[in-house]
UniProtKB/TrEMBL annotation:
InterPro entries: Antitoxin_Phd/YefM, DUF2281, phD-YefM_TA_antitoxins, YefM-like_sf. This is Antitoxin. Residues 47-76 form the DUF2281 domain. Antitoxin component of a type II toxin-antitoxin (TA) system. SUPFAM superfamilies: YefM-like (SSF143120). Belongs to the phD/YefM antitoxin family. The lineage of its organism: Bacteria, Bacillati, Cyanobacteriota, Cyanophyceae, Nostocales. PANTHER family: ANTITOXIN VAPB49-RELATED-RELATED (PTHR35377), PREVENT-HOST-DEATH FAMILY PROTEIN (PTHR35377:SF4). It comes from the Bacteria.
Length: 77
């Protein structure tokens, strides 16, 4: 179970680096303003890298006879 911590905005500003570390470790941090939940501090998910066409160029090779019929299938041809 993930622990949840509620903290006032004034205390949050004094302990921001500690709260960020706690959030990165999976703790849910709720920042209160005027005795009401105002903000939830959660880690940002890593951004997926977009595919870069041609990035594997030269890394993949195929044998010269790749598209030749297989001997096992000669009777079907």
């Amino acid at each position: 179970m993930i622990a949840m911590q509620q903290i006032t905005i004034n205390k949050a500003s004094q302990h921001l680096s500690d709260l960020v570390e706690a959030a990165l470790k999976g703790e849910e941090i709720i920042i209160m303003k005027d005795n009401q939940s105002a903000v939830k501090l959660i880690p940002v998910l890593p951004v997926k890298q977009r595919r870069k066409p041609g990035s594997a160029k030269g890394m993949v090779t195929m044998s010269d006879d790749f598209d030749e019929p297989l001997e096992d299938f000669q009777e079907y041809m």
